[in-house]
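Let's practice the habit of predicting before peeking. Look at the sequence and jot down your guess about where helices and strands might fall. Then scroll down.
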Amino acid sequence: MPAPEISFDADIKPLFREKDRDSMRRAFDLWSYADVQTHAAAIAERLKNGSMPCDGAWPQDRLELFERWVEQGKPE
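Done guessing? Here is the structure:
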């Protein structure tokens, strides 16, 4: 059975806290589907290497959820 489709509003946007959004705002808006879709590869890279968020790396399950969203074509 295929995994359920991940949506930006329901699954991805809530992963980013207000402080994450504020710290990245000069580059792009983590609560904007268009911005996260555009910068998904760079965001994924920073999440993987632990440089984002700035106060500590995400747990593996959050990282995998973001990666699955990208693999599914970044559905809105």
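How did you do? The chain has a mean pLDDT of 95.
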